[in-house]
């Protein structure tokens, strides 16, 4: 790279749930040329101005070719994607000379040892970070945003709030706070991050090299979420049925159900674990990049409105 700024960005998952917000935010800066790596037959629509390049994971040379000349690679894929896919992308980025990788994170703190131990889904993320450093050809910045607010609040078995039945299940007392992000905030985070200079005396990418970093929209409890729902829907708590369940028992029950093939059990296991009263879901003590990236303070009620609208079409329970 001859510039002190990233200008060419490749993204895997540019048309996905969070990827489209990242892509649109990057385009909105006017500083980046965006290339989307897409598989043959992909039905995802790409934002106007994105350059599509077709790839075939069974042919690694197509990955290398698509990544030639790129300054950064963003990976945003389903959490269930085999980590061999991530490894193939990382290896191809190294061969193509891509200096920066934002790996497939975009969730709770995958550097938290308790979460890594208890949530198998997070374990490959540590492996991927190590693979990047071991390869030694690219540097990573892993961005932890917490769970996506609009997605998660729309799923009753996730944050425990069911709009249709006006019921809420609080884990323990419902007062444990977790850090969570809206999709627009995830997009702004990536765009602001990749607009930093690579080297500078103060805020720059080199200062974040090979680190897990944090950004969020709100650090809130289930109780805070329900208060927002009440404001948005014009209801009061007396209109809702509130139940309470031990977070540990819910996690363990979800794990048992998941092992029987119940996908709702998986959701319960995954979400309830970050509500343990051990600080694992709250990254405020670790510090966020919100100030450095000048991310806006958002209105939780506006995000809650979007979640309620999304709940009308979601197929999760």
What does this structure look like?
The chain is α/β, with parallel strands linked by helices. Helix content is 38%, strand content 17%. Strands 3-2-1-4-5-6-11 form a seven-stranded parallel beta sheet, with helices on both faces. The chain has a three-stranded mixed beta sheet with strand order 7-10-12. A three-stranded mixed beta sheet has the order 8-9-13. β8 and β9 form a beta hairpin. α1 (19-29) packs across α8 and α10 runs antiparallel to α11. The longest helix has 14 residues, at 83-96. It is globular, with a radius of gyration of 20 Å. It starts with 7 loop residues before the first strand and ends in a 6-residue tail after the last helix. The mean pLDDT is 95.
Structural class: alpha/beta
Strand tally: 13
Query: Sheet bearing the most strands, described?
Result: 7 strands, parallel
* Approximate helicity band: 25-40%
Determine the strand fraction and express it as a percent band.
15-25%
Overall mean pLDDT stands at: 95
Distance between the termini: 48 Å
Enumerate the strands of the largest sheet in spatial order, edge to edge or round the barrel: 3-2-1-4-5-6-11
């Amino acid at each position: 790279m001859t510039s002190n700024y990233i200008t060419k960005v490749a993204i895997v998952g540019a048309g996905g749930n969070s990827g489209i917000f990242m892509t649109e935010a990057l385009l909105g800066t006017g500083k980046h040329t965006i290339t989307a790596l897409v598989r043959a037959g992909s039905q995802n629509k790409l934002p106007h101005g994105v350059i599509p390049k077709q790839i075939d994971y069974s042919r690694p040379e197509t990955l290398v070719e698509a990544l030639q000349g790129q300054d950064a690679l963003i990976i945003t894929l389903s959490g269930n994607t085999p980590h061999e896919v991530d490894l193939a992308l990382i290896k191809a980025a190294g061969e193509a000379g891509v200096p920066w990788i934002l790996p497939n994170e975009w969730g709770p703190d995958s550097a938290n040892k308790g979460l890594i131990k208890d949530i198998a889904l997070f374990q490959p993320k540590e492996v991927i970070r190590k693979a990047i450093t071991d390869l030694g050809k690219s540097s990573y910045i892993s961005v932890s945003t917490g769970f996506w607010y609009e997605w998660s609040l729309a799923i009753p078995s996730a944050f425990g709030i069911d709009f249709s039945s006006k019921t809420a299940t609080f884990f323990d007392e419902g007062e444990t706070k977790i850090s969570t992000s809206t999709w627009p905030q995830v997009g702004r985070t990536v765009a602001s991050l990749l607009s930093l200079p690579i080297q500078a005396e103060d805020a720059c990418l080199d200062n974040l090299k090979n680190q897990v970093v944090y950004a969020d929209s709100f650090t809130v409890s289930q109780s805070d979420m329900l208060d927002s729902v009440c404001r948005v829907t014009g209801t009061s708590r007396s209109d809702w049925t509130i139940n309470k369940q031990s977070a540990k028992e819910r996690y363990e029950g979800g794990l048992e159900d998941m092992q029987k093939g119940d996908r709702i059990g998986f959701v319960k296991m995954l979400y309830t674990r970050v509500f343990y009263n051990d600080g694992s879901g709250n990254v405020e003590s670790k510090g966020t990049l919100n100030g450095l990236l000048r991310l806006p303070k958002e209105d939780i009620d506006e995000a809650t409105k979007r979640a309620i609208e999304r709940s009308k079409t979601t197929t999760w329970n």
